[in-house]
Design goal:
Blueprint: H1 6-13, H2 16-23, E1 36-40, E2 43-46, E3 51-54, H3 57-60, H4 69-79, H5 94-105, E4 113-117, H6 120-135, E5 139-143, H7 152-156, H8 161-164, E6 174-177, H9 182-188, E7 193-198, E8 201-202, E9 208-209, H10 212-225, E10 228-232, E11 256-259, E12 270-274, H11 276-279, H12 298-313, H13 320-330, E13 338-342, E14 345-349, H14 353-365, E15 368-369, E16 371-373, E17 376-382, H15 390-407
Parallel strand pairs: 3-15, 5-6, 5-7, 7-10, 10-11
Antiparallel strand pairs: 1-2, 2-3, 4-12, 8-9, 11-12, 13-14, 14-17, 16-17
C-alpha cells in the first residue's frame, strides 16, 4: 500500500512534463509538450504564464471558445443533479431529450431521431452498422483521403493507405472512389451498396470542399440504388462551415448525419441522426442492436445544448464568412501557394512539408497554436473558435506572417 502523500512526493521529484512522458501514451515521436493550466475564450495559458491564441479550436472542438460561461454553468448545474444513471437508452433523461429536440427541430423532417455516442468515430461505427442492418447489403463506398475516425470500422473507410496498412485486416467490401468525381460515383455506387459516406468538406486533406454538383449526383444515385447517404459533419458541423450544418449550403440532405467535436462545447459527445423508422431497426433482430454505456451522458448533453444555445443567441453564424474572408485577405505572402476551405476551416498551403512544419513550430513559440493535416503536411490548419474577434484575427495573422518571414 502506498503511503499517504505518495502522489505529492512523486510530483516533487518529477515535473508534470516528465510524468506526462513517462505515463501518458504518446502517439507521435515529438509531442507539442505544452503544459496548459487554464483556457478561456480563444486563449490558452501555460504553466510559465505564457498565453497562446488557439487558432485551431482543439481541432474544431471549441467552437464557442474555451470555458464559455453559459456552457460552464450548464455543466455545473447538471453535475449537481445527476451525471451517469444507466446504459444509454434505458432511462428517460431530460438533458438527452432537450438536446435531441433542439437538434431535430433544426434539421429536415426525416432526420428526427438521435443516437448518442461518445465520439465521432463511434458515430461512424453506428452509422455503418445501421446502413448494413437497414439495407441487408455489405458494400460501403467511401472516398480517397477521407477521414472518419480511428476505430476499426472508421479506419476501414479512411481513404489513406499509409494510416491503414499496419492494422489490417479491416472491414471487407469497401470501395474507395475519387472525391468530387461524378463519373466514378455514378459507376461505383450500385444495388450492392449499403451506404456512401463522405465529408462535405474533407477535414484532413487541407479542407477540400465537395462541389454541389458532386453532392447532388451522390444524392440522386443513392436514391436510385437504395443506398443510404451518410454525411460526416464531425468537423464541419456546429457552425464551422458558416451554417450550422455544412449540407444546408448544398441543396441536399443525408439519410444519416454524423456530429461530434464542436457539438460538446468542450466535452466528449457525438451522435448519428436519422429517421425514427431506420433507427428502430436497432430494437430487434437482435434486440440492443447498438448500445453504449456513456453515449448521451447527462452532463455532456447539457453542455451540448448550451453550446447550441450560444451559437444561436450570440448569432455566431452571422459573421463566419466575414471572418473567413478577413483571414484570407490578411494572409498574403510569396511563400503562400493558396488558401482553401470553407468558413472557419481553412488551409494555408506552403508547398513543402518541411517549410510548413518550421512555420508551425515558430508560430507556437510566438504564442499562436496552429497545426498541419494528417494527409497534407505541406498545409497549415486554421480553424479558430467562432467567437474570435477581428482584432484577435489581425493579431494571429500578424504572428503567422512574422513567422513566415523568420523561416522563409
Amino acid at each position: 500500500m502506498k503511503p499517504v502523500g505518495f502522489g505529492l512526493s512523486l510530483r516533487m521529484h518529477f515535473s508534470n512534463r516528465q510524468l506526462f512522458l513517462n505515463h501518458v501514451a504518446q502517439v507521435s515521436p515529438k509531442p507539442m509538450d505544452l503544459e496548459i493550466v487554464k483556457a478561456e475564450g480563444v486563449y490558452l495559458h501555460d504553466s510559465q504564464g505564457k498565453s497562446y491564441i488557439d487558432f485551431i479550436s482543439g481541432i474544431s472542438v471549441s467552437n464557442v471558445g474555451h470555458c464559455h460561461p453559459h456552457v460552464v454553468k450548464a455543466i455545473q448545474k447538471q453535475a449537481e443533479t445527476y451525471m451517469h444513471l444507466m446504459v444509454y437508452g434505458e432511462y428517460v433523461q431530460a438533458p438527452q431529450i432537450l438536446l435531441a429536440k433542439a437538434l431535430t427541430d433544426l434539421l429536415p423532417e426525416h432526420l428526427n431521431s438521435v443516437f448518442y455516442t461518445n465520439s465521432g468515430t463511434e458515430a461512424t461505427e453506428g452509422a455503418l452498422k445501421l446502413a448494413k442492418r437497414v439495407t441487408g447489403r455489405t458494400e460501403i463506398v467511401c472516398f480517397k483521403d477521407a477521414y472518419h475516425g480511428s476505430s476499426h470500422g472508421s479506419l476501414s473507410v479512411m481513404g489513406n493507405e499509409s494510416f491503414k496498412q499496419a492494422f489490417r485486416p479491416l472491414l471487407p467490401d469497401i470501395r474507395i472512389l475519387e472525391y468530387n468525381s461524378i463519373e466514378e460515383a455514378m459507376e461505383g455506387i450500385s444495388d450492392r451498396t449499403a451506404a456512401v459516406i463522405l465529408e462535405p468538406v474533407q477535414s484532413e486533406t487541407g479542407y477540400t470542399v465537395a462541389s454541389n454538383g458532386f453532392l447532388k449526383a451522390l444524392r440522386t444515385r443513392c436514391t436510385e440504388t437504395g443506398a443510404l447517404l451518410i454525411l460526416d459533419e464531425v468537423q464541419n458541423g456546429f457552425g464551422r462551415s458558416g451554417t450550422l450544418f455544412a449540407f444546408e449550403q448544398t441543396g441536399i440532405a443525408p439519410d444519416i448525419l454524423l456530429l461530434a467535436k464542436g457539438m460538446g462545447g468542450g466535452l466528449p459527445i457525438g451522435c448519428f441522426i436519422s429517421s425514427r423508422e431506420l433507427l428502430n431497426e436497432f430494437t430487434y433482430n437482435p434486440v440492443l442492436g447498438n448500445i453504449n454505456t456513456f453515449g448521451g451522458n447527462a452532463v455532456c448533453c447539457a453542455a451540448s445544448l448550451a453550446c447550441l444555445q450560444v451559437i444561436q443567441k450570440e448569432q455566431l453564424l452571422n459573421d463566419v464568412a466575414q471572418k473567413s474572408e478577413l483571414i484570407r485577405s490578411l494572409l498574403t505572402h510569396p511563400a503562400i501557394k493558396q488558401i482553401k476551405g470553407k468558413g472557419l476551416m481553412l488551409s494555408v498551403d506552403f508547398g513543402e512539408a518541411d517549410l510548413n512544419m518550421k512555420i508551425i513550430e515558430a508560430c507556437v513559440q510566438n504564442g499562436l497554436i496552429v497545426d498541419w493535416f494528417l494527409f497534407n503536411a505541406h498545409s497549415m490548419r486554421i480553424a479558430p473558435p467562432l467567437v474570435i474577434t477581428e482584432e484577435e484575427i489581425h493579431k494571429a495573422c500578424a504572428i503567422i506572417l512574422k513567422c513566415i518571414d523568420e523561416v522563409f
